[in-house]
Amino acid sequence: MSLSPIQTLERTRRLIDDLRARTAETSWLEFKENNADGPLIGKLVSALSNAARLADQHFAYLVWGIRDGDHEAAGTTFDPATKREQGQPFEIWLASRLQPGLDFRFEEVEYHGQRLVLLTIPAAATAPVEFDRTGYLRIGSATPRLSDHPERLRALWAKLQPYAWEAGLAAQFLTGDEMLARLDYANYFDLTGQPLPDNRQGIFDRFQADRLIQPDVGGHWNITNLGAILFAKRLSDFGPSIARKAVRFVAYGGAGRADTVTHRQDGQRGYAAGFQGLVDYIDGLLPRNEHIGSAFREERPLYPPIAIRELIANVLIHQDMTITGAGPLIELFSDRMEITNPGAPLVSPDRFLDSPPRSRNEALASLMRRMRLCEEQGTGIDKVLTAVELHQLPPPDFRTEGEAVRVVFFAPRRFAEMTPEERVRACYQHAALKYESGQRMTNASLRDRLGIDPRNASQASVIIRQALDVGLIRPADPEHPRAGYVPFWA
C-alpha cells in the first residue's frame, strides 16, 4: 500500500533530517539553493542515478533550499511546477531527455518554516542513465561524462547485471510493529530452522541479513519485494505490483476451460508462508487410484506428489517478476494439470533437464532451497521425470507460449492411448534421464518406461527410429548400434 499524504510528508521531513545530518555531500546526494538551470539539472539526475547504483543505494537525492556549506535550511525560489524549458513544462522536458526512463519525483516541502524542494531519483536499474544521450557520474563536486571514466563504467555495469526485482521496495517507512504485522516472522524462523529470538531486534537482524527488510529513515523500516513475496501475511497489503503475483488455482469439471469451474483459489499469503498449504490444497482435490498391495488396498494420488511440488516450486522461482499484472497459474482438468508462469524461459524447454541452472530470482531461489521448499539447484526436473517414469505416466510437455512457460502434466494413460508425439517425447526424456544418471537408453529400458510387453519390442524400435529421424536422440556409438542411445546434446 502507498503512504498516506500525512505519512509521505512525515517521511520526507525525516529523510531531509537524515540527509542534512551527513557531514558532507555523497556521490548520490546534492544540495542546491536556487540553481534552476535545466541542462545542469538533467546532467545531475543522470550522474546521481548512476552514482546511487554504484553505492548500492535505491535512490539519489537533489535538495533545493539547503546551504551547501553548513546544511542549514535557507529556503528556495526554485519551482519545478511552474518552470518551463524550451517551451515545455520542466518535468516533461526532463523526462523526455532521460534514457532509460526514470520515475523521478519532485516534492515541495515546508521544513522548519522554509520552503524546500526535494527531487527523489531512482538508482539506475537496467542500464546507465543518460541525459541527452550522454551518461554522467558524480565525483566529488564534479559531474564528468561516464565515458571518460571507463573503470567506473565497468564497475557500474557490474552492479547493474545482478540487480534484481527482489531488491526493490514493496513498502516503505513502516514502524517495527507495522513491519512485523505484515510479515509472517514465525513462519520464517520455523522454515529456516532458527530459534525465534526473544527480542524484536533479533528478528530485525535476521530479516535484514536475508534482505527481507532494510532500514528506512527516522528509525523506520522498508520491506523488500523479496520479503513481501515470500512472507506476506496478505499479499494485498503491498499493492497491485505484489498482490497480482499471487498464485491462482482453478479446477474445471472437464477437459476444457469452457467446462464448469469447480474450485478456485487466489493465494493470499507469500510464497514461502503459503507453499505447503497450497500443495496440500491441490493434493486434497486430486483424484485417487486404488492400488492393491500384498495385503491391503490403498489409495494413491493420480499424480506423484513430489512431481507436483517440484513443478510448483519451479514456477515460483523462475517466473519473470518484472511482468506486471501476471502471476503463476495452476489449472486442473479432468485429464491433465497445466502450470503456467509469466516470462520467456532463459533456456530452451527441451534443455530444462541438462542445462546449467539459471534463475531470474537468485535470492528467492536460494532462500526457498534453504527452507527445503524446492530441491537443490538443477535437480527439480530430474525428480519430476523420475516420478513420471516410475508411475508410467505420459511425458510432461514443457512449452513456451508467448511470453510464458507452460508445463502440461498428464493423468495416467496406457501406451496404446498415447499420441505418436507423446511417445517420441517420452523417448527423448527417457534418454536424457538415463544419460544424466550415467547410463544409456536401450530398447529394453524404453519398453520398461512405456509399459510395452517384451513380445512387442518392435513397437519400441519404431519409436526410437522416429526420435532419431527428428534429431532428438542419437546412437551412443555409431560403430556399435547395440550400445544404446543418448540425447542429441550429449
From TrEMBL:
Cited InterPro entries: RecG_C_sf (IPR038475), Schlafen_AlbA_2_dom (IPR007421), Schlafen_AlbA_2_dom_sf (IPR038461)
Domain Schlafen AlbA-2 span(s) in chain numbering: 25-143
Pfam families: HATPase_c_4, SLFN_AlbA_2
Gene3D superfamilies associated with the record: 3.30.565.60, Schlafen, AAA domain
Coiled-coil annotated spans: none
Protein name listed in UniProt: DNA binding domain-containing protein
The species this protein was found in: Paracoccus amoyensis
